[in-house]
Amino acid sequence: MQVLSVTPEIFPLIKTGGLADVTGALPIALAGKGVAMRTLVPGYPVVMDAFKKKKAVYQYPLLQGGKASVHAVKVGELDLFVLDAPHLFDRQGGPYGTVTGSDWPDNWRRFAALSQAGGDIAGGAISGYQPDIVHAHDWQSAMTLAYMRYGKAVGVPSLITVHNLAFQGQFGAGIFGELGLPGVAMQLDGVEYYGGVGFLKAGLQAAWAVTTVSPTYAQEIRSPEFGMGLDGLINMRAVDLYGIVNGIDVDIWNPATDKHLVANYSAETLEARGLNRKAVEDRFNLENDDSPIVCVVSRLTWQKGMDILAAVVDGVVQRGARLAVLGSGDAGLEGSLLAAAARHRGRVGVVIGYDEALSHIMQGGSDAIIIPSRFEPCGLTQLYGLRYGCVPVVARTGGLADTIIDANEAALSAGVATGFQFAPNNGGALLHAIRRLVEAHARPATWASVQRQGMKADVSWDKSAEKYVELYRLLLSKRAA
Ligand code: ADP
Q1: pLDDT digits (tens, 9 = 90+) for 290-334
Q2: pLDDT at position 441
Q3: 3-state secondary structure of 161
Q4: Residues 254, 265: Cα–Cα separation, whole Å
Q5: What are phi and psi of 54, to 5 degrees?
Q6: pLDDT value at position 415?
Q7: Among candidate residues 168, 157, 162, the one with its CA nearest the CA of residue 206
Q8: 45 preceded by cis ω (within 30°)?
Q9: What single DSSP character describes residue 72?
Q10: What is the pLDDT of residues 211-225, one digit of tens each?
């Protein structure tokens, strides 16, 4: 089975969030299951630099203006189609914006171009390659499904995975004329959205199936509270809606071999975590004692509930935990967390920035990781936490609810608990969870059992990849019908 994946990010080449981890890991997990996945990705500078021999397999004028070509290359284990369109992607900065963080004003054009390439390839533009299925991700590649539908690939089964419904790619009606789509596409069941053009909306409309990255989030987005204005459409698509939890790369995230750690360990040698814990204390200027270190590795945003945490830092410290925060994002949140660290020297440490190596040490040395997200399509850091014996403390929402088993009395005595859940998501409930955590941490046998239980959980891509294969098969059977 040939599957074309279309994505704006892919680990290890270009990553701003969990989406990249998924698109980077899935092809490798699928390879052993009879599915050959090729990934179409924009030719950002880091992507173009990742391969030497440039040989275009497709050269064409873009419907949105300018010329482009597609290179078929292999980078590591990944089979890529790289969209080379220098006027759109050869820029310093992030995939979506400038170095200072403001969005590129022509993002609609950039990701319409990516999507056109996806639609063209789905329609057989590259000789010798015909995907059986097209798998798009988020708004940046969602229009692939519109280009397929209004172009030559209307019969090719497609799905779109929503990694985060908060990002929808909405633009004014004025861009429509430059998308190169037929006029009939600008209607309610096409790309039109509240009078403008909605990229994600168009994808949700055209996809044969819609997936989210956890079953709970798939249900949540059917409600106005989580649906971000798209709940009506998502309800209409409910029979084609699936939730498949993400896995993680268990080779990269393996405490027994992780090169970033000061000391490697397994469920049998948890005491070796002490050396990593010391590294966390040093890096965050925390006092050295036996109280639990609760860490945060996160974008500092409202979605992640960082304001809820920032408002109760004093309470976290009072309840006997130390806090180590790694993250960047909202300037106001960065400021209030830094202020909390200044107030609680030795008990709270904050590092502002993005630091992959440090994130590993934190999982390997902290006692717990707290994730108070308001909504969480899947979440990866709680899965890393499980694997590293860094006990997750999570808001009961989305993928967090699906992947963590709360350490209530029943779960503890049955030996199945893997973390702590709290609800509703507010400061009081969060502090209550911290209190439960501090109490459990004071009972070493209980704590180690929660750690070990988490480390036993299967968080690999294997199970998830199996579910995608099932869905791909279902779509192929629909095509046959
Ligand atoms: P999202 O994609 O919504 O940001 P996820 O939990 O799905 O949230 O994925 C976040 C990913 O980014 C994880 O791999 C996490 O370790 C990583 N990450 C987030 N913030 C930082 C940071 N400041 N430094 C290093 N890694 C980070």
Answers
A1: 999 999 999 999 999 999 999 999 999 999 999 999 999 999 999
A2: 98
A3: strand
A4: 9
A5: -100, 115
A6: 94
A7: 157
A8: no
A9: E
A10: 999 999 999 999 999
- From the CA of 351, give the closest atom in ligand 1: 23
Q: Which atom of ligand 1 is nearest to the CA of 381?
A: 6
Residue 358 C-alpha to ligand 1 middle, in angstroms?
A: 12
Element (H, E) at 287: none
Question: Which residues, 6 or more positions from 293, have their beta carbon under 8 angstroms from its beta carbon?
Answer: 277, 280, 281, 286, 321, 322, 323, 324, 365, 366, 367, 368
Distances 288 to 283, 291, 341, 381, 428 between C-alpha atoms, Å: 12, 9, 16, 25, 28
Nearest-atom index, ligand 1, CA of 164: 3
Question: Which domains occur in the chain, in start order?
Answer: 2-247+462-480 (3.40.50.2000), 270-457 (3.40.50.2000)
Nearest to 21 by CA among 266, 267, 271, 383: 383
398 lines ligand 1 (CB under 6 A): no
328 lines ligand 1 (CB under 6 A): yes
Answer whether 260 contacts ligand 1 (Cβ < 6 A).
no
Tens digit of each residue's pLDDT (9 = 90 or more) over 338-383: 999 999 999 999 999 999 999 999 999 999 999 999 999 999 999 9
Q: Where are the beta strands (DSSP E) in 205-333?
A: 209-212, 241-243, 293-300, 322-329
Range 393-413 average pLDDT: 97
User: Does the interface ipTM go beyond 0.95?
Assistant: yes
Model confidence at 204: pLDDT above 90: yes
Residues 154, 439: Cα–Cα separation, whole Å? 58
| Separation CA 215–CA 398 (nearest Å) | 7
Mean pLDDT of 258-266: 98
CA nearest to 401, candidates 392, 410, 413: 392
